Amino acid sequence: MSWIEDAVFYNIYPLGFCGAGKNKDNSVAYRLDKIYEWLPHMKELGVTALVFNPIFESTSHGYDTKDYYTIDCRLGDNESFKKICRSLHENGIRVLLDGVFNHVGREFRAFADVRRNLQNSPYCSWFKNINFVGDSPYGDHFSYEGWAGNYDLVKLNLQNQSVVDHLLGAVQMWIEEFDIDGLRLDAADCIDDDFFRQLRGFCKSKKCDFWLYGEIIHGDYNRWANQEMLDSVTNYECYKGLYSSHNDHNYFEIAHSLERQFGKNGICKDLYTYNFADNHDVNRIGSVVKDRDHLCNIHTLLYTMPGAPSIYYGSEWGIEGVRTKESDFDLRPCLDMDKIPNPDNVLYDHLKKLGRIRQELSALKNGSFENVVIKNEQLVIRRKNSEQTVYSVLNLSNEEQWIEFPVDGCGVLTDVLNESSAFDCNNYVKLAVPPCSSRILVLSKDKDEEEESAGLLD
C-alpha cells in the first residue's frame, strides 16, 4: 500500500504563515523554524504529510522564482530547511514542495541575462515567445510571454532540454539532500505533457513512492493524472460541491460529483485525488459557508470521500479570509498558535476525531464508493473494501431527522464519531441524526467486531 492512502495533508503558504512580507532586504531570517512549534499541533490533527507552497528564492510572493536551488532567505537557508525536513520525517510527516515550473520571476538568473544582453544572451531560447521587436510592459527592449498576462511571471520554454535539465537538477537536489516526498505542480494545465513524462520518470527513479499532483481546476483529470504523467490532481470539482451543496441545501450536487468521479463507472475511480475545502488561492471555507454550523459536516465529507483530505493552515479553526481584486493577502495570514483569531474549537475537536478515524478505518482509505441515500438535506455514502463497510450519514437540516437506508447484512452499526453509539441492523436501519451533524458508522457482524469498533475513540 502506498503512503498516500494513509495521508492526511496539511498545507501552508510559508511566506504568509511566517509573516515574511512581500518584499525583502536579502538578509537571512529563520522564520520557517516556526514549524517546530506547530509540530505537536499537526500530530494532534493526525497529519501525515505537509505541503509547502513556494519556498524557493523569489522576488515577492513566492511564485516569481529567482533560484530553484535555494530556500527563500525570508524563510531561512538550505541548512535550516534540511533540519526542518529531518524533524518532520522523524515525526512521521512527509514533505512536499510546490514545483513552480511553468514560469519564473524577472530576477531569475537566465532572464536577467536576457535583459542585459538581449539577442546575445545564450538564454533567449529558455523563455516562451521572446521577440526583439517592440518593448515589454516593463520597458524591456523585447517582448515575451507572461503567464496569464502577468509579465512579472515569465513563461519558461519547457520544450528546451536545457530548461528541463535545470529543473530536474533542482528536483534531484531536493530529493537527495532533503529527502522530499513529492511535488505539487503549479499551473499544471499550462505545462507540456512531455515535461511531465520526463519529470515522472526522473522522480520515480530516485524515489519509487514519490508523489506528483497537479493544480488542475477544470477538465478531465485523467488528462494529466495517468500512468505516464502525474499521480493525481487537485479536486476542484468536489471543492466547489463541498461548500455549495451545504449553502444551497442541495446534497444532490456533491453526490453527483462523487458518483461521476468515484462511482461504479466513475471517471476518476482509479485516481487518488487531492481533496480540500480551501487553499491559498480561494476564499477561506469559514468565509464561504453561509451557516458555520455546516463546517463539521463539510469536513466529515472531506475525510470520508475517496481521495486524500487536506487542511489549509488555520482553517482547522474556521478562520476567515476573502481575496480581493488587488490581493490574496487575507488568504495567507501570519498565524501564531496562541493568537488564532476567533477559533472554532468545536470544529477543531471534530477534525481531531476525523484524523483518528481516517487512520483507523481502512475502508475510508481504499474502499469503493456508493451513494446510498440522496436527499436535499440528507446524504448517506458507503465506503467498502474486503475488510470493512463504513457509512457516512449526514444531516444538514436545522432539525433532527430520521434517516433510513439499506445495510450490507445484519449486525451492529457503531458510530465512531459520536461516543460509539450502536444501532442494530438487519439489512436495513433507521436512525436519528441531530441537526447539522453527521455519523460515521462501522458495520460489525459479531460481538468482537462491535467491541473493536467501539474502541476506536476510547
Share in β-strands: 15-25%
CATH fold topology of the largest domain:
TIM Barrel
DSSP E strands, number: 19
CATH level 1 class label of the largest domain: Alpha Beta
Description:
There is one protein chain. With 458 residues, the protein is an alpha/beta fold. The chain is built from 13 helices and 19 strands. The chain has an eight-stranded parallel sheet with strand order 11-10-9-5-2-1-13-12. The model has no long low-confidence stretch (mean pLDDT 96).
Q: What would the keywords be for this entry?
A:
eight-stranded parallel beta sheet, 29% helix, 458 residues, 19 strands, six-stranded antiparallel beta sheet, 13 helices, alpha/beta, 2 domains, Immunoglobulin-like, TIM Barrel
In short:
This protein has 458 residues and is an alpha/beta fold.
SSE layout and pairings?
Layout: E1 9-12, H1 14-17, H2 35-44, E2 49-52, E3 56-58, E4 65-71, H3 78-90, E5 94-99, E6 103-104, H4 109-117, E7 146-147, E8 150-155, H5 161-178, E9 182-185, H6 193-206, E10 211-214, E11 232-233, H7 236-247, H8 251-262, E12 274-276, H9 285-288, H10 295-304, E13 308-312, H11 345-360, H12 362-366, E14 368-374, E15 378-384, E16 389-395, E17 401-415, E18 421-433, E19 437-444, H13 447-454
Parallel strand pairs: 1-2, 1-13, 2-5, 5-9, 9-10, 10-11, 12-13
Antiparallel strand pairs: 3-4, 6-8, 7-8, 14-15, 15-16, 16-19, 17-18, 17-19
